[in-house]
Amino acid sequence: MWEAPEAPPRLTVSALTAQIRRQLEGEFREVIVEGELSNFVAHTSGHWYFTLKDAQSQIRCACWKGTNYRIRFRPRNGQQVVCRGKVTVYAPKGEYQLTVEAMAPVGVGEQQLAFEQLRAKLAAEGLLAPERKRPLPLVPRRIGIVTSPTGAAIQDILNVLRRRNDGVSVLLYPAQVEGAEAAASVAAGIRWFSENPDPDFPVDVLIVGRGGGSAEALWAFNTEEVARAIADSTIPVISAVGHEIDFTIADFVADLRAPTPSAAAEIVAARRADLLAEVRSMASTLTKVMHIRLLRERQALEALARHPAFDDTRARLRDALQTCDELTLAAQSAVQNRLRLAGWRLERAGNRLRRHPWRPYLQLHEQRLDELTAKLIAGVQAQAAAAQHRLAQALTRLDTLSPLRVLARGYALVQHPDGRLLRTTKDAVPGQDIVIRLSDGRLLGRVEQAFPAPEAKPDLPAHP
After folding, report:
1. Which residues neighbour 420 within 8 Å (Cβ) at sequence distance 6 or greater?
2. 439-445: long-range contacts (C-beta < 8 A, 24 or more apart)?
3. OB-fold nucleic acid binding domain location, by residue (predicted)?
4. In this predicted structure, what is the pLDDT of residue 18?
5. Pairing relation of β-strands 205-210 and 256-257?
6. Core-most of 9, 148, 157, 373, by most CB within 10 Å?
């Protein structure tokens, strides 16, 4: 005997949605989806909401704040990406979506895209402009270094400085240069030098960097945080990251890029060495010129001594030649002594200039300027407040005298159509159109008849 099929159970919307949710989320725990980004929104809460689509379909996506901070590039509409995540159901609306846990651009590496995006952003702000680059000090006396205290970079820098310029002072800020906290640590080191200047022995130039490594290891120097710290530094910065083939965002923002940390040390130490080499070269050239001139004079005297007409004076010429040789040696010694004295005076003048207390005077005038600026601003604000108070009082008086306030209490104005007021019943003519103005609008009417107010009669005394 045929039996009717059993009817399915009756479900509530919530129960049906729960079943769908269990089925979908259990079936699609992890999926990889490629599509085009559209409707991208970075919410103020930090979450990302967008749509992935292709030619036939689309799916809504969400990437939570606790996840998207690991995505290094900034997604934009129209970009082809690959997303990894899971399918979830948003029960209040009965909609399914892809909860994204990782994202990568198609056709270009995530790191390279992030690098190019940040570089373009900073260039648009003018932070990479050549005119922003500051010159390095001629002879730095103190060098600040932001790097790891245990890495190879600091050892390379110190070795070069000891070999090229052992008189320079070095101040190290120990920074973490690799890992999740590296960018914040390096940026803090750069800011520390700007915020803690020594007026008596200032840092003349900063070297910021580390030794070589993978792209992941160098990534701290490709972050916006480090780039802006370099741009805001009050001290000229040399970026020395990795090897010669490694380029980072820090290299483009810094005042000078060194291919390696050792090269950065060579650059700052070469200044003093170059000056000394130039002085030595000038001394050598001067000595050669004097020697050539004296040699010519000697040759002329010898030619005269060999002439037959001067046989009787030959002995005196030999004495003159000997004296000439002695004068040559004395002149050479005098030149060397004068050059040494000039170098010593130059060094001493430079030291006096660095120790001159001009900074306190500058700070005093800057403080005075700040005080005057504050007083000026306070005075302008006080005058503006007084003017606003007077304006508020005038508006209050104007509002008190306004006829609109009278109308608001229940009175009305009666006017001719041309706007003239009807002040007495004598101004009204039967059959005439009138306009009655109330607090919230106007009424149109017509005079049927005028009723003048009865004249007041004097009070009569009562009958006795």
Report:
1. none
2. 439/404, 439/407, 439/408
3. 11-103
4. 86
5. unpaired
6. 157
* Tokens matching residue 192: 């520390």
**Tokens (6 digits) for 378:** 């306070």
* 8 A C-beta contact, residue 298 and residue 278: no
Burial 70-101 (b: 16+ CB within 10 A, else e): ebbbebeeebebebebebbbeeeeeebbbbbb
Q: Please name the residue that has the structure tokens 């991208």.
A: 40
Cα(420)–Cα(434) distance, integer angstroms? 10
Q: Read off the pLDDT of residues 391-428 as tens digits, 9 standing for 90 and up.
A: 777 767 766 666 667 777 777 888 888 878 878 877 77
- 224-232 helix and 110-124 helix, angle to the nearest 10 degrees: 30
Q: What is the DSSP letter of 69?
A: T
Task: Name residue 197's amino acid.
Answer: P
Confidence label for 215 from pLDDT (cuts 50, 70 and 90) = confident
CA distances to 4, 11, 168, 316, 345 from 349, in Å = 112, 94, 17, 48, 6
pTM: 0.46
Closest CA to 207 of 245, 244, 180, 233: 233
pLDDT of residue 208: 95
